[in-house]
Structure formats: structure tokens, C-alpha cells
Design a protein that fits this description.
This is GDSL esterase/lipase At4g18970-like. Belongs to the 'GDSL' lipolytic enzyme family. With 352 residues, the chain is of the alpha/beta class. It contains twelve helices and six strands.
Length: 352
């Protein structure tokens, strides 16, 4: 049995094992979330953008129904939140009025990227840099409540979850009709430029008090149904050029983890390898996804989704189903394979 087959069997085991998470005393006092539509829980709802998911069939399996999550149920970071012992999901920044921001805030925004222009052909979004600015505002509010010394002690113990960068390829580099980055950079140059910009935002978070970082790598973006249907050739299952370009960024991100673990005093960084899931047992892009999708790859509002959602890796043409999110969350939290997280998993990081 070759290595790839063994990895696929591990995937199947996790996909069809128990789906419930037990909450208890949180393992960290707070969780701050930065990212894109893989983590967005409602920040895009009131923006002028096509990148919205606050309507059925999104949320069909979520207790509160459609909330702005781009999946049928929980996102990966929702599940990680539960695995960490929280008895509630972290609220989106857009809905923080009257909530206890000391427990954490979700700043993620659908279509957003590391670069400010990423995703803007769909309308407004909240880029990584703007998310960091929002966090600066939250830290200022916390400082008013707790005082400078106490807020720093508090933030030092929190987990900072960063999952962003996929759109800098999907909704920027590989959309030359909207963005010039493809003609301005080679894939190697682009990965380096992205990593440099990403690192400045992460260092800003460190200077604001962050010490525990979980940096999530990019997915096999060339294996996303939308990319297969729009850029695939000769009935290919994946667009290798796109996945290989994203992998260059992942290599830069892993190197950043090593560098910042040495340079930033008191901080601990881990890298989570998301380029892991393979969908080789599905023969057609349409068999991967669950809802009827529009030209932009998102679900048609109020259309029914498929019945066997647990059997489909993608809900729309871009975003995974809750079943896949469960797998990725559990692997990030407690890695079954050493190569999935580096140099440790989330469960080990939060104990430091």
C-alpha cells in the first residue's frame, strides 16, 4: 500500500468517525480569528459584495441557520473553537456590540486576501491589513476595560488563528482579466511578495500582544471544483499549475514559522498543512459539490442542497462541507500525522 493510499484511508476514517465535540473549560482565555470565507461567520453580511452566504441553503445544518458561514454547518475554526472548550462560537467583528470581546473576535471576511485589492472585483471585503486594524480597535477597547498591564497578560495567553491567502491566488493571481499580478510577478516572486506582506501583519499582531499563533497553509486550490471547471484541461482532476503556485507560498509560510520562532521573544508559531485533502475517488467536478451554484461558484439563494451532504467534500464550487471541516479541524487540533502540523499541533500549542 503506497503512502498516498494510506493518507486517503486516514481521511476516510476521520470523515466517517464521530462528529461531535465536547465543550468544557476553555484551554485558552480567548481566540482571535483572521481569514477569508473559510472562517467568515457574518462579517460580509452588510457589505456591498457578491461574496455573501447569509441565505439558504448555507447554514442548512447550522443550529442558527444561515449566518454568513460559507458552508452547510460549522467552519473548521468553529469546530476548533469547540475542541478548545468554548461553549459558544466566537462572534464576528460586525456583531461585537454588547458581546464580551475579551473572549475573542472573528475578523474573517469572504473573498478577502493578504493584498488589499484581492477579491474586490466581487465588491467590498475586509483585507488582512484591515482585519489587523479592527483588532487594534478591539485591543484599545480591552485596554480601556482592563488596563494596559492586564490586557497584555490576557492577550499573551490567547490563540491567534490565521487562515488567509487562498484568495490571493483564486481571486487575484489567476484572474488576469481583473488583476495585473500575474503579469507583474512570476509564481516564485508572488509567493515571496505575499509572504513579506503577511509577515508584517503577523508582526503587528505580535506587537499588540499576540504570542500563540496557528498559521494555516493554503489548500490544494487547483482541486477546487470551480478551478477544475474553469481552468482545467483534458478532463484533469486538478489544475496542477495553481496548486503548485500555492505550495510555493506554503513553503514561505513554513519558513516564516521557523524564523519568527527564533526572532520574536516569547512567541510560538505553528504551521498547519492544509494541502492534504485529495478527492481522487470523485470523477467529475459536479460530484464534488452539493448545491446548485451560480456563475461565481456560490450557491443560488434558497435553492435546495443535496441530501447526502456528508458524502460531498464541497458544499458550493469553492467551500468544503462541514464533514470536511470536521476532518481538517481535528487534524489541526490533534494531528494524526506528524507532517500535518509543524512543529506541533494546536492542542500542544495552547498548553505552552
Amino acid at each position: 500500500m503506497d503512502r498516498e493510499t494510506k493518507l486517503w484511508l486516514v481521511v476516510l476514517f476521520f470523515l466517517f468517525s464521530a462528529t461531535y465535540c465536547v465543550v468544557g473549560v476553555p484551554q485558552v482565555p480567548c481566540l482571535f480569528i483572521f481569514g477569508d470565507s473559510l472562517s467568515d461567520s457574518g462579517n460580509n453580511n452588510n457589505l456591498n459584495t457578491e461574496a455573501k452566504a447569509n441565505f439558504m441553503p448555507y447554514g442548512v445544518d447550522f443550529p442558527a441557520g444561515p449566518t454568513g458561514r460559507f458552508t452547510n454547518g460549522r467552519t473548521s475554526v468553529d469546530i476548533i473553537t469547540q475542541l478548545l472548550g468554548f461553549d459558544h462560537f466566537i462572534p464576528p467583528y460586525a456583531n461585537t456590540n454588547g458581546t464580551d470581546i475579551a473572549l475573542g473576535v472573528n475578523y474573517a471576511s469572504g473573498a478577502a486576501g493578504i493584498r488589499n485589492e484581492t477579491g474586490t472585483h466581487m465588491g467590498e471585503d475586509i483585507s488582512f491589513g484591515l482585519q489587523v486594524q479592527h483588532h487594534r480597535d478591539i485591543v484599545s477597547q480591552l485596554t480601556t476595560k482592563l488596563g494596559t498591564d492586564k490586557v497584555q497578560q490576557h492577550l499573551n495567553k490567547c490563540l491567534y488563528y490565521v487562515n488567509i491567502g487562498n484568495n490571493d491566488y483564486l481571486n487575484n493571481y489567476f484572474l488576469p482579466e481583473h488583476y495585473p499580478s500575474n503579469s507583474n510577478y512570476t509564481t516564485e516572486q508572488y509567493a515571496i511578495a505575499l509572504a513579506i506582506e503577511y509577515s508584517t501583519y503577523v508582526k503587528d499582531l505580535y506587537e499588540l500582544g499576540a504570542r500563540k499563533f496557528s498559521l494555516i497553509g493554503l489548500n490544494l486550490i487547483g482541486c477546487i471544483p470551480y478551478e477544475i471547471s474553469t481552468h482545467g484541461k483534458n478532463d484533469s482532476m486538478c489544475v496542477q499549475e495553481e496548486s503548485q503556485a500555492a505550495q510555493l507560498f506554503n513553503e514561505e509560510l513554513k519558513a516564516l514559522v521557523d524564523r519568527y520562532n527564533k526572532e520574536l521573544v516569547g512567541a510560538k508559531f505553528i504551521y498547519v498543512n492544509s494541502a492534504f485533502m485529495k478527492y481522487s475517488n470523485f470523477k467529475l467536478p459536479d460530484s464534488l459539490k452539493c448545491c446548485k451554484d451560480k456563475e461565481n461558484g456560490l450557491c443560488f439563494p434558497n435553492e435546495e442542497s443535496c441530501i447526502g451532504r456528508h458524502l460531498h467534500p464541497f458544499f458550493d464550487a469553492f467551500h468544503p462541507t462541514e464533514k470536511v471541516n470536521l476532518f481538517t479541524a481535528r487534524c489541526a487540533y490533534s494531528s494524526p500525522i506528524p507532517t500535518y502540523t509543524y512543529p506541533m499541533d494546536i492542542s500542544q500549542l495552547v498548553k505552552l
